[in-house]
Amino acid sequence: MSKTVLFFDGDCSLCNKTVQFILKHEHKITEPVFFCSLQSAYAKQALSKYNYNFNQLSTLVLLVNDTVYYKSDAALYITKFLKAPYSWGAVYTAIPLSIRNSFYDFIASNRKKLIKKPFCYIPTPELKNRFIE
Hints:
This protein is an alpha/beta fold. The chain is built from five helices and five strands.
């Protein structure tokens, strides 16, 4: 059985808020998205065969079956799992990747300034099985 896993910077407040947003707005009829910190042993094992640079913690990485999506591709792909109007985000794939990733990189490089308060999402017992440690 393959899973959809969203890898994120576990030390980033914006990333943790993004995970919480996904959980709050996801479609209940789609396959669940699982979540894993890029700093975890599982991430290192799962992403090593894709030659992921673990010095790059400022990006979302989405593993779907045997395909890896990075940066804006990962963010837009994940909208497929969300309820409307958030699922409409997929229309932004029409924007050239270089432009989307430039915008993504700007947000990523300023993410610690955007949300200055430390934030660590603690899942409820019902959601705990969606997090890979």
